[in-house]
Each structure stands twice: as structure tokens, then as C-alpha cells.
Amino acid sequence: MDKDLSQAGPWITGAYALTTADLLLWAGTTAAYLAVAALVSDLPLAGEVLVVLFTPVIAAGVLREAARPDATGDYARRARDIFVGILRDPALALPVMSVATILLGAWVFLTVLAMILGVDGASLGAMFAHRDLLARVFTGVLLTIFWGLRVALIMTALYVLAATVLGAARPLEALEQTLALWRKQPLTIASLGITFVAPLILAAYLGPWTRTLVALVTVIPLTLAVYLSYESLRAQGSGS
Question: Keyword Transmembrane helix on this protein (predicted)?
Fold first, then answer.
């Protein structure tokens, strides 16, 4: 079903190679994103909504910057372009914001689902405390399902953004392309999600410092791995 699972390894190592090759830009981008996200998330009512909305915009900026291999130096301009360049581009602003809005709706749905399933606790210890063995196993199964859905959602959103930014596809067309990629390469895409997204989700239950440390070494490499895999799979598709 998925003969090219071995491709995931080079994409993962390639993503970290791209990260270290321009470490100042990507480290600064990650630190700035985490700082803004921390400030915005503390806003009452709309904080988390705003974080979910502006995160795809920055991811799209990272994807576009990654597609400029000759860009070097001038870190202030490039960082500014990553954060706000997409919104200033009339060809990309509306499609990317459409993807962000759809992502927000799906994220809210999963948040409500987590509340219903009882896996929205602030910590893993709180969710598993004062329960017998059967209840803990059941909670673990529900938590695994919930994490899987979040990984799938984040990976889908990133590939939709890649098709929008790199492939000049409209949002619905980008979604169709992404679903086609899932059908052709499910284990490959899932392996990238498990490598990068699953640690982020787990770290969210382990406190802000752990979450920040994990984000510093996964957020940009995740996006760059999506860039590398999308370009590779698109080239394979055009050559087949």
C-alpha cells in the first residue's frame, strides 16, 4: 500500500539540514512565533482562536521562504516576510486565510470532542488519577484516538497550505490533492506526523517549559519536512 515509506527518513534528516543551514533565521522565527503565541493565547475568549488563525499564515510564510533556496542574509526582511508577507500578497492572502478558517472550525470540533471524551485534562496525571485499571486503559485508548485525529488534522492543513503556496492551487483543489496524497502515501505522511506533531501534542500536557523546548526543535523542521515531501511527491506525480 505504501511502498515509499523509506522516503520519510531523508525528508526528516533533510528538514533538519535545512534548519541548521539557516539556523539564525529559523531559530529567530520559532522564538518570535512562540513569544507571540504565548502573549496572544492569554487574551480572554479569543486568545486560542487567534493563535489557530495566525499559525497557518506563518506556516505558509515558512513554506514560501523554503522555496527560495538562494535567499541568504537580510534576516529582518526575510523574517518579516514570513510573518506578514502572505497577508500582503493578494494571490495568497485569501486562500491561506480560507485554509486557516477551515482549520479553526476543525480545531474547535476536536476541542469539543476532547471535552466529551474526557481527554481535555490539563495534565496526563490528572486524567489518569483516581481511576481503576480498566478506566485507565479506556482513557488511554480515547487519548490515542484523539491524538491521532489532531496529528491527521495538522498534517492535512500543512499539505493543503503547501499545495496552496507552492502549487498555486485553490483551497478546495489543494484539499483534493492532499487527500490524494493521504491515499497514496498514508504511512509516509503519518510517520512525519508521529515524528514531529505527536511530541508537540504530548508536550502540551507536560507544562509550558516542556512544550516550549519541544516546539523549538520541531515546529520549523516539521514545516520544512512537509515542504521537502510535497515537492518530492509532486515531482514523482508529474514524472509518472
Answer: yes
User: Is 22 contained in some domain?
Assistant: yes
For residues 166 and 235, give the distance between their C-alpha atoms in angstroms, rounded to a whole number. 12
Give 84's contacts (C-beta < 8 A, 6+ positions apart).
61
Residue 109 lies in a domain: yes
For residues 66, 71, 73, 78, the Cα torsion angle rounded to the nearest 10 degrees is: -60
The pLDDT score that the predictor gives to residue 4 is 58
In a domain, 240, yes or no: no
CB 127 within 8 A of CB 120: no
Q: Which three cell numbers stand for residue 133?
A: 485499571
pLDDT in tens, 193-207: 999 988 888 887 777
DSSP annotation of 7 reads: G
Q: How many CB atoms lie within 10 A of CB 71?
A: 14
Alpha-carbon span 45 to 41, nearest angstrom? 9
